[in-house]
Amino acid sequence: MRRINEHNLRISTILAFILIPLSGLATDVYLPSFPEMAEVFHTSSAGIQQTLVFFLVSYGIAQFFAGSILDSFGRYRLNLLALFILSASNFVIIFTHQIHVVDLMRAIQGICTAFIMVGKRALFVDAYTGEKQRHYTSLLTIVWSVAPIVAPFLGGYLQKNFGWTSNFYLLGFYALIMLLLEAIFSGESLNEPHPFRLPVILKNYRKLLGTPDFSAGVFILGSIYTTVMVFNMSVPFIVEQRYHLSPVVTGYCALFSGVAMFIGGLAGKMLHSGSLYKRLVAGNLIQGGLILLMFISASLFPSLIMIMVFVLLIHMTGGFLYNLLFTYCITRFPRNAGMAGGITSGGSYMITSVASSGILGLIAVTDQQTLAISYLVFALLTAGILGFLRYVPAGRLLQA
Q1: What is the pTM of this model?
Q2: How confident is the model over 264-281, as a mean pLDDT?
Q3: Pick among 1.10.510.10, 3.90.1150.10, 3.40.50.1950, 1.20.1250.20: CATH of 9-399
Q4: How far apart are CA 175 and CA 92, in angstroms?
């Protein structure tokens, strides 16, 4: 089996960065198609939103197991298999007429995406050390945030011109092309496979999850990303049903959300003044203040433009916080890079899937005020977890 070495490391790194936006693309590209898909599959808005929840749940759960499996059996072959299944599942969605089949395929896609993403994140820990490792792992969230920028914007135009199936054609061919490129140019990056021994694996899981700063970081990441997903799942109906605008406008709104996350991520990578903990607290306080202003001003300036101004600022602070914590968590345990990456992303996505489904079940997000209330819930949760870290043995995070 071909391995990653000095000759193909550069191309393998480039291919990894091309695949990093996959999870965001798979969740965001078909958002502008929600209203049409609800009609085509004869279901409600909640029924179509559930297709995204199925993806998020399976993606989150699978990453818990993907890390240990990839640490034992390698990254390369499992990555190729996952890309093949991912591509095929999109074409199944295109030709089905049953919403339950879509739910099943989305769950399968979540599992495949989990193996791909965990393997590619682990590559940067496998192949690089020192400052280069920190540089590339910090770039991960910035590159990942390209998908929320591009995907809904692209999806809006595809929806307007070609209908809902065009989004899944895009995903299917994207996975197929990447499968061919990976098979030709990439290779195995794992240097020391860990024996697949269940007691040892469970011990490592307990060690990672029992580390307060690591597990708290995962919870905060889930809380931050929930705000983004609540917006993404609600904006098609706010734009197209409340304001009676086209799916292209939905794409623009999601584009601004993604740009905000991207800018916030860049700020998180570039700003190094103060301890990590102080930067997290400051970001949370700023975000909380913006959310309160959003709620107060809802009755004074009720418009889509005002909603998007606050979304831009709130998601920017979310991107700042996300970049700081994601980089910290995935590099926290370099000897268990796959497992740490899997738990970091998988755990946060599981929290996001449960929390976003729960909040949308409790609050019908239809305007600025209800969106602000949903944001406030998770800003307060983040504040509570950060406060909790002051009173537990989490010295490494407090001193970083």
Answers
A1: 0.71
A2: 81
A3: 1.20.1250.20
A4: 14
